[in-house]
Amino acid sequence: MKPFDHVTSVAAWLDEDAIDTDIIFPARFLLLLDKDGLGKHAFHERRNDPARETPFVLDRPPFDTAQILVAAKDFGTGSSREQAVWALADFGLRCVIAETFGEIFYANCFKNGVLPIRLPAGPLATLRAAAQREEELTIDLPAQQIRLADGTVMAFDVEPYRKDALLNGLDEIGAIQRDDGADITAFENNQKRRAPWLYLTPGQLSHFDDLGEEILVDPNGKPR
């Protein structure tokens, strides 16, 4: 997982509440299991609506290369599909800022290198106005700050263990390997000494009886 430290980018904005995961990544694409390439399906209906008079924000320069998305209330509610976050990450978005998030979507963001930030409506409106002016925002995760071009600084909260995981590019498995790897290795080495048959190949297992005692064989493979 790509570490998250600082991101400076223009921000795309969605001035709409309750953008659920089916809007972010429609269900008919769930058969696609590879994370790579899912970005082209993000917000598929909004981006391909024949009635739309202007291109969707993520298809308009400079927002087509935005790494920050400013949303509204209840972003990522609905289905728990992790592909919604995969699609945003594959598109290039590293940070989503909203007033509230779907709980599972919020957790999935951290597992995939995307920083979700909760902010009240007032600061969100300020960020949305800056985005519409095509001004760059800086997300500073170590300082837990959002910095605007005019010098405005907004603080945000993030759980310490999730912050640490993002800074170091660790998903849940990576964090366990880092924090508990030595204990896991010690356990496995001890288990190999006490129960070596658990680590044998199928061919090697044939040389042990049901009680785990080794069966001695002659050069022809016959029990002695």
What do these coordinates show?
The protein has 224 residues and is of the alpha/beta class. The chain has helices at 21-24, 44-47, 83-91, 103-111, 121-132, 160-167, 172-194, 202-205; strands at 6-13, 68-70, 95-98, 115-118, 136-140, 145-147, 153-155. A 7-stranded mixed sheet has the order 4-3-2-1-5-6-7. The longest helix has 23 residues, at 172-194.
What's the layout of helices and strands?
Layout (H helix, E strand, L loop, with lengths): L5 E8 L7 H4 L19 H4 L20 E3 L12 H9 L3 E4 L4 H9 L3 E4 L2 H12 L3 E5 L4 E3 L5 E3 L4 H8 L4 H23 L7 H4 L19
Parallel strand pairs: 1-2, 2-3, 3-4
Antiparallel strand pairs: 1-5, 5-6, 6-7
Protein traits:
2 domains; 7-stranded mixed beta sheet; 7 strands; 8 helices; alpha/beta; 13% strand; globular; 224 residues; Aconitase, domain 4
Helix content: 25-40%
CATH architecture of the largest domain: Alpha-Beta Barrel
Q: What's the CATH topology name of the largest domain?
A: Aconitase, domain 4
Strand order of the largest sheet: 4-3-2-1-5-6-7
Q: How do the helices and strands follow one another from N- to C-terminus?
A: EHHEHEHEHEEEHHH
Oligomer: single chain
Give the C-alpha Rg.
25 Å
Domain count: the total is 2
CATH C-level name of the largest domain: Alpha Beta
* Name of the CATH superfamily of the largest domain: Aconitase, domain 4
Strand residue content: 5-15%
In whole angstroms, the N-to-C terminal distance is: 54 Å
Structure summary, number of beta strands:
7
* Unreliably modeled segments: none
Biggest sheet features? 7 strands, mixed
- Choose one word for the global shape: globular
Count of separate DSSP helical elements:
8
Alpha-beta classification: alpha/beta
